[in-house]
């Protein structure tokens, strides 16, 4: 079989390397001979000599996104703790999923809450709705009635708003943490690319807060560890996981 593949497909006879290439070929065989002569003169590997002095320097410094910052030894969670949190979170998601199924199949009665919610494109409105502020105590807790009123695009969008807001803070607020956890509970899988990026930003932000933790309380450190754990180990962003 191998010898058959090595046989010439077309025999052009002897090749005269002194042929005058400036003249046009007189036959098809002569044309093929000229091609073979020129091919033999080509190097097997060609490397371009690039003068990098002519390249313009980039006007924008682009830094690749890094993973989570390593926790100080006294703040990092144990593996057993992480696995326990993932198990509890999975059970809560299963329970909420069963409730939603019962509502959809009319096995459980449910009425939408009588609450004025911001429009989906009102980022500031949702931040006030979920976390409140000092001037206007506008804040609605993430009860089941409220959470069940949100469809999946709203869950993803609100989560993105809250994560971006969290990136501007020095520590995670308790009210904000409640909402982020509730949204993660009802977040459907598989994740969209945008939502996956949002979760990774959440974990990185938490790791930065934790690494710079000089005045954080124990429960605040626990919340940061929890979000990093869930993003990494439940939502399968394992490169961000604590050891």
From TrEMBL:
Keyword Transferase found: no
Coiled coil region boundaries: none
Q: Record's Gene Ontology CC terms?
A: SMN complex; spliceosomal complex
Q: Which UniProt keywords apply?
A: Cytoplasm, mRNA processing, mRNA splicing
Annotated organism of origin:
Bombus impatiens (Bumblebee)
Gene from which the chain derives: LOC100747644
Q: Where on the tree of life does the source sit, at the highest rank? A: Eukaryota
Concerning Pfam families, the annotation shows:
SIP1
The family assignment reads:
Belongs to the gemin-2 family.
Please give the name of this protein.
Gem-associated protein 2
Lineage of the organism: Eukaryota, Metazoa, Ecdysozoa, Arthropoda, Hexapoda
> Function, please?
The SMN complex catalyzes the assembly of small nuclear ribonucleoproteins (snRNPs), the building blocks of the spliceosome, and thereby plays an important role in the splicing of cellular pre-mRNAs.
Where it sits in the cell: the answer is:
Cytoplasm
Mention one GO biological process in which this protein takes part, according to its record: spliceosomal complex assembly
Subunit structure of this chain's protein: Part of the core SMN complex.
């Amino acid at each position: 079989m191998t010898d058959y593949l090595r046989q010439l497909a077309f025999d052009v006879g002897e090749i005269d390397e002194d042929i005058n290439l400036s003249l046009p070929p007189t036959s098809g065989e002569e044309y093929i001979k000229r091609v073979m002569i020129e091919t033999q003169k080509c190097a097997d590997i060609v490397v371009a000599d690039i003068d990098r002095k002519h390249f313009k320097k980039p006007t924008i410094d682009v830094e690749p996104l890094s993973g989570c910052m390593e926790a100080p030894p006294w703040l990092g969670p144990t593996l057993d703790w992480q696995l326990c949190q993932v198990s509890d979170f999975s059970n809560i998601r299963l329970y909420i999923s069963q409730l939603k199924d019962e509502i959809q199949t009319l096995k459980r009665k449910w009425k939408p809450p009588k609450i004025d919610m911001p429009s989906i494109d009102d980022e500031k409105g949702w931040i006030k709705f979920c976390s409140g502020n000092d001037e206007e105590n506008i804040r609605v807790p993430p009860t089941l009635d409220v959470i069940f009123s949100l469809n999946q695009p709203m869950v993803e969008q609100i989560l993105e708003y809250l994560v971006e807001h969290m990136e501007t803070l020095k520590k995670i607020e308790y009210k904000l943490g409640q909402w982020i956890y509730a949204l993660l509970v009802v977040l459907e899988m598989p994740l969209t690319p945008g939502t996956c990026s949002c979760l990774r930003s959440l974990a990185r932000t938490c790791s930065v807060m934790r690494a710079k933790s000089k005045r954080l309380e124990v429960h605040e450190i626990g919340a940061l560890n929890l979000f990093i754990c869930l993003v990494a180990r439940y939502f399968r962003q394992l490169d961000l996981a604590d050891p």
